[in-house]
Design brief:
Largest interface: A-B, 51 and 56 residues
Radius of gyration of chain C: 24 Å
CATH topology of the largest domain in chain C: MetI-like fold
Helix content of chain C: over 70%
Largest sheet of chain B: 7 strands, mixed
Structural class of chain C: mainly alpha
Distance between the termini of chain B: 56 Å
Number of strands of chain C: 2
CATH architecture of the largest domain in chain C: Orthogonal Bundle
Number of domains of chain C: 2
Largest sheet of chain C: 2 strands, antiparallel
CATH topology of the largest domain in chain B: Rossmann fold
Strand content of chain C: under 5%
CATH class of the largest domain in chain C: Mainly Alpha
Distance between the termini of chain C: 10 Å
Strand order of the largest sheet of chain C: 1-2
CATH superfamily of the largest domain in chain B: P-loop containing nucleotide triphosphate hydrolases
Oligomer: heterotrimer
Chains: A alpha/beta, B alpha/beta, C mainly alpha
Shape of chain C: globular
Order of helices and strands of chain C: HHHHEEHHHHHHHHHH
Number of strands of chain B: 11
Strand content of chain B: 15-25%
Number of domains of chain B: 2
Chain lengths: ~375, ~350, ~325
């Protein structure tokens, strides 16, 4: 066996683990080439799916990644689990650099980082029984739990709230929520330390979503597994994650503990995102009115993102500086430790209604202008 | 075609039952496994210019109901019973020609996924102009102009050029705007919006919802808004009807249904869904089990197998007897009115954080 | 679009060259000696050497291959005379120019292909569309049932049955034969009608089923429902919205069928004792006749590649998503 099959040695296990993060990502970049041209096809550009990402995940914590489609949150998930290889930057898992590790080098780590996918219908092999699906990660990694694999699978089925008797059934015999439970059981089979959950509940009905969220929360609390929880639903991310990062066009624009992000956001995009969430208000007198921000248009293409601050094209505070200079992700004065914002002209840390709504959408502005003029 | 211009049609006073009224609607699909009663005895009313929100999960019958209103169900596999009356006209017995004159003209529809709901083969402008030509008899040129005007109205930049584009050249939000322009092109009295923002990002969703509300105010359109998202419905609707397994289980105004819900299923939905301001210490309380198969629906109240409160009803009424749903503020549950209020205030409300 | 066509055309020529190389080297790799085959039983060494010389078999293999391929473009000179471009060589077996042999046979193959395609497209796709439009009715059931039965038939079964009835039994028609259309259009039509119709029948059944299912699939598309929701009539939606989408799978299969038929419809030709390209291919293989085999292979491959490009262009015409990407 060649030397390079062994990863850089881990630092002494146990020493300083309280401080050392489970996962550290720095300067992570993933560009997908765009082919085209004539007469010979060549790379003419790149989808800058992830473009310079720094984040850390502590052991046992749940780290939320939110953002709209095209912000690169799913790509980030796939990079962390090394289903994709980064274009640049490093991913360090428990002190080992896994950014460009080969399959063989990854083998011992694969069992510790697992993934749960969005679609419970397509992520399970329809020709395998549930028992086979859940036990195959153990087989591949040559793990023989005490009492045998089958007993372990039954135990896992029990943990995720399925009947252990369903060992020999096939995925199509289960509902969407139950299938997602099977996906969770498969992820748990190898006793992972980190689970990357990519939109794990967004394909499920509301009443079923809560079941799966509770299951994941139970798993996180009782088994001490760290989560990278990727979702577009801000309320679910808040419910599930202690720390949250907001992504926009391949970059983290704001990150912090959930209270900072949801109650004291500074980045205009975080404000816009939060204000866009439709909410059931339970009582009128309760809670102050939320601010109303309506952006214009859609997210620009990640093939040619705006210069400087990527949000500037949709931002109401944008100035020349925003186009010229990319704002660093830093702790602004008045922010708590760990609450970082990438903005030259941050907003006030409040989500309460403003004197005047921010309506950038021209059609809305026109219709509402007419409304106020007409008696 | 002039008979169709709405200016002439004197504002026929909507009956006491409203502009659209559905009575005891039954929709049955024949499948290989047997008949599936997708909608079972549904009644509701909608008044001019108002928005009715229909909430329910997949399989609740909310989309089927509205396809039936437009007669877009597959007649080969579907039987429809009951009454659907639009502005005094019975629709179930209407001929295909009559329905065609109605669709896109007086009643228009907005679908969930604008990418698949718009034809990939024709330009946006053409697709918007098409119903306008058909229903108003306008010339091709006039219809093109109208399409451009509508695109401008819904906030598409450079509408004249963009009308020449195909749907795949539009972004998701822009496609849904085009879809709205298409629905409103003939100034319909009723728009049925079936999960119109589910496929969109949250900031775009907010734009589209506000746009719909503002346009409704301008056009005076009545809207049936179908969604699974209680937050969206809170934002959009005047009245709410909650559906479960092919039946309406609760109805009332937005305030009534969301602030003092009466049905255990509505409680379950509210408790299942975290909010931006909910208490983080409280875990979600999901509804146990899964929605029933409509091939073999539960007897009595269809929610009884998943209901945590059926032992408070006493006897086996939940299993044997279908709870009735009144026409106004009401819920189809055997619990007593006072009981419902107490349970909500004492047990459900605190868990909402 | 033009860029696309140019790129595909260049690619097609490269592919043709590679197919030629593969055929050539596989053929010579097989253990057989054409010269002694051509020489016959009482073969003197001198005569054998002459034949080798005449056929160019003494030259290095690469040289032989190059001569063959360049001959297609420039033409070649043989002791027996000049073979003008496109020269596919001279048959070892018959001594005829391969190109002119192919050109002799091609009108028949073209007649079979074009005639068949017209019949099965009009009848097959038409029946499928009508069945889809009238789904669930008697028309649909008859069309579906008939196509089910017919598509399980084979030409070598249906052919003799039809011949027995129409030709040998009732004598209503004569044995199928090919008469050039330029000489006798009526004779051409009558002579080829049985083979064309029998072959088309089997394809018709397949196209009926395909068109029907593809159409039903399209009718269930969201955008078709949207068009209905706009008040467009069923017929209008059928003809303007659903129809276009259903063409894609039909064009795909049509491209494959037509290109393979142009390369020779062996079974049909054998069944009706016709001399087309298919027969030529069989002869080439049986007689180990390298130039003939090469010629027929390249000729067939040319059509496959040509029709592939045409198919892609048709896709682009049908679907703006392909055209504009």
């Amino acid at each position: 066996m060649k030397e390079d099959l062994v990863l850089p040695a881990t630092r002494e296990a146990g020493a300083g683990t309280a401080q050392e993060p489970l996962l550290t990502v720095s300067g992570l970049v993933k560009h997908f080439p765009v082919k085209g041209g004539f007469p010979i096809k060549r790379t003419v550009g790149a989808v800058q799916a992830v473009d310079g990402l720094d984040l850390t995940v502590q052991a046992g914590e749940s780290f939320g990644l939110v953002g709209e489609s095209g912000c690169g949150k799913s790509t980030t998930g796939r990079l962390i689990t090394r289903l994709l290889e980064p274009t640049a930057g490093t991913i360090t898992y428990r002190g080992r650099d896994i950014s460009h590790a080969t399959r063989k080098q990854l083998a011992p780590i694969r069992s510790e980082i697992q993934m749960i996918f969005q679609d419970p219908y397509s992520s399970l092999n329809p020709r395998q029984t549930v028992g086979k699906i859940i036990s195959s990660p153990m087989e591949i990694n040559g793990i023989d739990p005490a009492g045998g694999r089958e007993a372990r699978v039954r135990e896992l089925l029990e943990i995720v709230g399925l009947n252990p008797e369903h060992y020999n059934r096939f995925p199509h015999e289960f509902s969407g929520g139950q299938r997602q439970r099977i996906g969770v059981a498969r992820a748990l089979a190898l006793e992972p330390k980190l689970i990357v959950a990519d939109e794990p509940v967004s394909a499920l009905d509301v009443s079923i979503q809560a079941q799966v969220v509770n299951l994941l929360q139970k798993v996180q609390n009782e088994l001490g597994i760290a989560f990278v929880f990727i979702a577009h639903d801000l309320a679910i991310v808040r419910h599930f994650s202690q720390r949250v990062a907001v992504m926009y066009l391949g970059k983290i624009i704001e990150v912090g503990d959930r209270d900072s992000i949801y109650a004291r956001p500074r980045h205009p995009y975080t404000h816009a995102l939060l204000s866009a969430v439709p909410e059931v208000t339970l009582a009128e007198e309760e809670a102050p009115q939320r601010e109303r921000i309506r952006l214009a248009g859609d997210v620009p293409s990640p093939i040619s993102p705006p210069s400087g601050c990527r949000f500037r094209t949709r931002c109401w505070k944008a100035q020349d500086k925003c186009a010229a200079e990319e704002p660093p992700l830093i702790q602004l004065s008045g922010n708590r430790a760990g609450h970082l914002t990438a903005c030259h002209f941050p907003e006030e840390p409040s989500t309460e209604a403003r004197d005047e709504d921010i309506v950038l959408d021209p059609a809305l502005a026109a219709l509402e202008e007419g409304k106020t003029e007409a008696p | 075609m002039t008979t169709l211009t709405k200016a002439e049609g004197a504002p026929a006073p909507a009956g006491p039952d409203g502009f659209l009224s559905v009575r005891d609607l039954q929709v049955t699909f024949s499948t290989e496994d047997g008949p599936v009663k997708a909608v079972d005895g549904l009644s509701f009313d909608l008044h001019r210019g108002k928005t009715l929100g229909i909430v329910g999960e997949s399989g609740s019958g909310k989309s089927v109901t509205n396809l039936t209103v437009l007669g877009l169900h597959d007649p080969l596999f579907t039987t429809v019973d009951g009454e659907i009356v639009l502005d005094g006209k019975e629709l179930i017995t209407a001929t295909e020609k009559e329905m065609e004159r109605l669709r896109g003209n007086r009643v228009a529809m907005i679908f969930q996924d604008p990418l698949t709901a718009l034809s990939p083969f024709y330009t946006i402008g053409r697709q918007i102009a098409e119903p306008y030509m058909k229903h108003t008899g306008a010339s091709k040129k006039a219809a093109r102009e109208r399409a451009v005007e509508m695109l401008a109205k819904v906030g598409i930049p450079n509408p004249r050029e963009r009308a020449q584009d195909y749907p795949h050249q539009f972004s998701g939000g822009m496609r849904q705007r085009a879809m709205i322009a298409m629905a409103l092109v003939c100034d319909p009295d009723l728009v049925i919006a079936d999960e119109p923002t589910t496929a969109l990002d949250v900031t775009v969703q907010a734009q589209i919802l506000d746009l719909l509300k503002d346009l409704q105010r301008e056009f005076g359109t009545a809207i049936v808004f179908i969604t699974h998202d209680l937050g969206v419905i809170a934002d959009m609707a005047d009245d709410i009807m909650v559906m479960y397994a092919g039946r309406a289980v609760e109805r009332g105004t937005v305030d009534q249904v969301l602030r003092s819900p009466q049905h255990p299923y509505t409680w379950g939905l509210l408790n299942s869904m975290p909010r931006l301001d909910s208490d983080l210490g409280t875990p979600l309380s999901p509804i146990p089990g899964t929605p029933p198969s409509l091939l073999t629906p539960p007897s009595g109240c269809r929610f009884h197998p998943r209901c945590a409160f059926r032992d408070r009803v006493g006897g086996d009424r939940c299993v044997t007897e279908r709870p009735p749903l009144g026409p106004d503020r009401s819920s189809a549950c055997h619990l007593g009115t006072e009981q419902k209020r107490t349970i909500f205030v004492e047990e459900i409300r605190p868990r909402l954080g | 679009m033009l860029q696309f066509i140019i790129r595909r055309t260049v690619g097609a020529f490269v592919t043709l060259f590679l197919i030629g190389a593969a055929t050539f080297f596989l053929f010579v790799a097989a253990p057989s000696d054409y010269a002694s085959l051509a020489c016959g039983k009482d073969c003197s060494p001198q005569r054998l050497a002459d034949i080798r010389e005449a056929l160019g078999l003494n030259l290095p293999l690469a040289q032989q291959f190059w001569d063959f391929m360049s001959g297609i473009v420039t033409g070649r000179d043989y002791p027996t005379g000049h073979c003008s471009a496109p020269c596919l060589g001279v048959s070892f077996y018959s001594g005829d120019m391969v190109w002119s042999t192919i050109m002799d046979r091609f009108p028949l193959t073209l007649t079979l292909t074009a005639g068949g395609a017209i019949v099965f497209l009009v009848v097959g796709v038409g029946a499928g569309m009508i069945a889809a439009y009238r789904r669930g009715t008697l028309v649909d059931k008859v069309a579906t049932g008939a196509s089910m039965v017919l598509s399980s038939f084979q030409i070598y079964f249906l052919g003799p049955v039809v011949l027995t009835i129409l030709v040998y039994g009732t004598g209503l028609m004569e044995d199928p034969k090919y008469v050039p259309v330029t000489e006798d259009p009526v004779g051409w039509f009558v002579g080829m009608s049985i083979p064309v119709c029998v072959m088309a029948t089997i394809f018709t059944a397949q196209y009926t089923r395909m068109a029907r299912s593809s159409m039903i699939e399209q009718l269930a598309e969201d955008h078709v429902r949207t068009a209905r929701a706009k008040g467009m009539s069923r017929k209008y939606v059928f003809l303007r919205y659903a129809w276009r989408g259903s063409l894609i799978p039909i064009v795909t299969v049509l491209g494959i069928d037509v290109s393979s038929m142009l390369g020779g419809a062996v079974v049909t030709e054998l069944t009706f004792s016709l001399q087309g390209i298919g027969r030529l291919a069989v002869d080439g293989a049986v007689n180990k006749d390298l130039p003939l085999t090469m010629g027929v292979m390249l000729f067939g491959a040319f059509f496959i590649l040509l029709i592939n490009i045409l198919t892609d262009v048709t896709y682009a015409w049908i679907d703006p998503r392909i055209r504009l990407s």
